[in-house]
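Work Package 3 (structural annotation) set out to generate three-dimensional models for the target panel prioritized at the project kickoff. During this period the team completed the workflow that converts sequence records into discrete structure tokens, so that structures can be stored uniformly alongside our sequence database. As a representative example, we reproduce one entry of 197 residues exactly as it appears in the project archive.
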Amino acid sequence: MAHIVFKGLTKADDPILAEVLPKPEGARPLPVPDNFMAVSMLYGIPFMLVCFAALLVKARMTGDFPIARNLLPLGVVLGLAGCFVHEWLHALPQPKGATAYIGLIPRQFMFYMKCKEPLSRERFILMSLLPMALGVLPLAGFMLSGSQEWNAVLWPMAMIGLVSPSPDYRNVIQVLRQVPKGARIQDSEEGMCWYLP
């Protein structure tokens, strides 16, 4: 497991955010669209719809609105706090001996995990999808819970936990389409790239 450093609030020009390894010879870029976040949010729409569908199913099952509205803000706060856990989950699959930094860039309201070490294609996909657990588990809890109070906490946590990895979903689809098995993926001065070792 990587050495994980919690940086907390981080300036956008912090030197660790610019740390990269030299681009390997023959590496190919993984292009990022100019409007990356807007494009990425499209990948969250199916998960948002799943959460709303779960809410409707639960309402039909119980014959009532299944959430105590006054506790919804608590669920939102816990869901947002879970964004640090989201980044910690990204750090877990990083290579042994690597250093992974976790923090929040307040000006951009962007949580991040930064590690410069390359990952295999398969480990990159695992690293990208691992934070989905922060949405899947609360959604399962929501469906099983009979308490409106618990539902008010679990449903927004599920929504945030499933929608916040939208950029990760986009990256996984791009990697599946463009990166061959056996390749490695890393950051470079020009952005993400892949290469065959």
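DSSP finds seven helices and seven strands in the chain.
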